[in-house]
Amino acid sequence: MDSNKLMALLPDIAAFMTVVEAGSFTAASQRLGMTPSGVSRQVSRLEAALKADLLERTTRKQVTTDTGKVVYEFSKKIMESASDIANIASQEGGEAVGELRISAPKAFSRHILEPLMLPFLERYPKTKLRLLVSDEFIDPFGHNLDIVFELTHFPRENLVAKTLGDIKAVLCASKSYLQNNGIPFHPNNLLNHDCLYLNEQPNDNVWLFSKGDEDVKVQVDGRYSVNHSEMRLNAVKSGMGIGIFPEFVVEKALKQGDVLQVLPDWNINSRYQGEIVMQFPQSKFMPVRRRAFIDYMVEAMKPVKRDP
Question: What is the reported pTM?
């Protein structure tokens, strides 16, 4: 294929990538500001040029073919190279300028990121921050993100990962609840207690504990579940039961005695804990604004790091 034909296919390659990452033509069209039929025509044009089916279309979803998966991986490299080209100019100025797009989990954003964002903007007055708050992982390529934060022990392999610290999960209850219902001394005791959990996923009420060589899995139950950490904490403070929280959510409540830690000798293995990982696409020519933000977060998050 000659270079002119290849250049003409670049918009179609971008459209194909977006469909794969968004999961449907409709979702891709919303990201691209086009109609679903327009996106479909672009993908069909790319398939015709490559003489290969890239997507298997059904009435409900699109499935990437084996050939499509290979094309997608090469397409990502093309887009990453295009991003490097766009970033060269910002390198030359040596000043943090422009927009940074960031995604992070809700509770982490509220308790950890929010106090750090305005000072960053004050330090770098020519930058803009666009923070997308979601507990779901958001692909940085499909959403044109600079930085993605996760609490995890397993960073994404296709992204550069920088660990900023670690967060433990903490089991808590109010003093009044424990006085009225007794103190659990083993995870199995939780079967006789009201427990508050997210109820976002089918196994959110399955709590995993470990201590030494002992691993315990408990399917808890309770009268109240809510996928908002502060609402859940307020319910625990009111004596509604026992809940799991990231330690940064309950740190103040523990210090003030509003809640007490339950089963402190047990490790809790849940979605509420893990390493604080800052992830971003690989780039030979990283924009100054992204480098400034990364360095700023590394410095600002030092107090979060725990001694082993």
Answer: 0.64
